[in-house]
Design a protein that fits this description.
single chain; 237 residues; alpha+beta; 10-stranded mixed sheet; 31% strand; globular
Length: 237
Amino acid sequence: MDMQIIAQTPYYLVVDKPSGLPTVPLKNDPETKDTLLGRLRRTYPEIMQFGKNPWEGGVLHRLDTLTRGLVLVARDQNSYAMLCKQQESGLIIKDYLAVSSVRREQLPVGFPPFPYGDIADGKEHLVGSWFRAYGEKGSVVRPVDKDAPKQWKSKTSGVWYETRVKLIDEREGTRSFACQLASGFRHQIRCHLAWAGYPLDGDASYRGMKDKSFGLSAVGISFLHPVTRKPVHYSLR
């Protein structure tokens, strides 16, 4: 599946990234790997003229390689600066669809007890934690809550991250959750749902059920237009 341009304005792009495609290249390998940014720069070379890091260009946020969905990319320095300020202030809201076909009572090693109740009860839950790197070379993360051991807290990101979660569909043992966040950490939704006992389908890193497709899609994004300041929203639904 190739990427699709959902919105093209003089100030930003909204792009539907396919599953399996990295959003941006690695710092030490900016040219050789196929990425969303690499594909975009061929048509929109201006997105490489600014950004916090030269290998990330005007990309405002990343999606995990396996996650399909909407990515926001600035096309000029002023728009990038305005959108970065919105992101830092929690004004860029991202909506996700998460799918889990398994309920695990026993949590993976390194997870504290889940303190937020059953997220599949039809109510909206606000799941929050710090995060710490875990596993070989920190390839995955673990949540750290307020009752966690001191040695865990000392190794966290230092920022409290929250995911709004609500069950929106359940059939034949498969549950679909609407998830929303304003600021994100690597693997945030994947880790929070695994912590709740509902790991994503196809997510072997967090003991999800084996599946050819990955159970997470970024389906919506809302922000203020960087010039008019009017609210805008884009959706895959």
